[in-house]
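Example record

One chain of 194 residues, shown exactly as stored in the release files.
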Amino acid sequence: MSQVDFVALCQRSKVCSGFDAEDEQLLLSDGHKLLPHLPKVTEQFYTELQQIPAAAPFLEGRVDALKATHLAWLDSVFSGPYDEHFAARMHRVGEVHVQVKLPVEFMSSGTLLIKKHLVPILTHVYSDDAVRLGQMMKAVNAVTGFCLIVMQESYQSSLLAQELDKFMAITGISRALFNNLASAYGDTKGDAAA
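Predicted structure tokens for this chain:
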């Protein structure tokens, strides 16, 4: 598997999600206002997940541990910094989801459920400042989109790596031979385009 350039992944994911420097600064300056409310978001999130029959196999006997991990993740989302190390942690989340065979749509729906529970909290916290509420909603949307993009990229590359490993096990092709074939194909493909 190739090394991930987390600096590039971080930059690309920020651009794609619209997570800009203003959003980062706002979350770093105001994120602490949301921290006391995050346990409630995690509780509501897992209450809803437990109502989804397809989620049951992924939750069984693990809800308390998952809640602790989820809360730590949410805390990092509102604490930053939003750099290559943050992207690497989000990337690892995607890898873990592949390892436990969690369907990819659960990451997207999970992000939406989290935002569903954050919106009322934001409205409460910023009830006296409509402008700041709008700015925070934009920032929350952008940072959760940023996280989702990184996790989905990781999910996709981890899934492809698993499939490649299966292919090599079935065919008996070594990693070195596969890499040589892939390199040769890449060289030939480039020559054909020229």
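Notes: The longest helix spans residues 130-171.
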